[in-house]
Specification:
The chain has 160 residues and is α/β, with parallel strands linked by helices. The chain is built from 6 helices and 8 strands. The chain has a single domain (3-159), classed as 3-Layer(aba) Sandwich (Rossmann fold). The strands form 2 sheets. Strands 1, 2, 3, 4, 5 and 6 form a 6-stranded mixed sheet that branches. A two-stranded antiparallel ribbon has the order 7-8. Helix 1 packs across helix 6. The longest helix is centred in the middle third of the chain and has 16 residues, at 61-76. The mean pLDDT is 87.
């Protein structure tokens, strides 16, 4: 069974989490960054994992477009979803329900979040100011939800 992890990352945190997810999969997976490869033939895969960072309450635009363009196929496959953001657990779980289409969430075998991070070296001036003012963070921070990554790995491995 072929697996694929398709992700969209603005500053690299979601990419890091997607790589961590891939490391724990028995049969391995293809890892695809939507920014590098926006057209993917999903018919080649049986398990499809989609992950995106969340900014201003939305997943990345390229991920949103990818889902909209491939929703019919995604609903027929073993699909899993994850987000990366700095919300606390309850808020992050609530946000998941808002950023992905409801019918996709309902058909997905796993839906979770992997935490978030801020890397000031990868932000532009305006992004830095917003994070400092609104989030009250002034230095690099990372909060990876290891248990959620492990749980997703176990669910994927159970399918393959």
């Amino acid at each position: 069974m072929k697996n694929v992890i398709i992700y969209s990352s603005k500053h690299g945190f979601t990419e890091k989490c997607a790589e961590m997810l891939k490391e724990g999969l028995r049969d391995g997976s293809n890892l695809i960054n939507l920014k590098d490869n926006p057209i993917i033939d999903l018919n080649d895969y049986q398990v499809i994992i989609l992950g995106s960072s969340v900014y201003a309450g939305n997943i990345q635009k390229d991920m949103k477009e990818f889902i909209n363009n491939n929703l019919k196929v995604l609903l027929e496959k073993n699909t899993g979803l994850f987000t990366c953001n700095m919300h606390k657990r309850e808020e992050a779980e609530d946000q998941l329900k808002k950023v992905f289409p409801l019918e996709l969430i309902e058909r997905s075998f796993v839906v979770t979040f992997f935490g978030g991070g801020f890397d000031f070296s990868k932000m532009n001036f305006i992004e830095k100011q917003i994070v400092k003012k609104i989030v009250k963070v002034t230095e690099n921070v990372e909060n990876i939800e290891q248990e959620n990554i492990k749980m997703m790995q176990e669910k994927i491995n159970a399918l393959v």
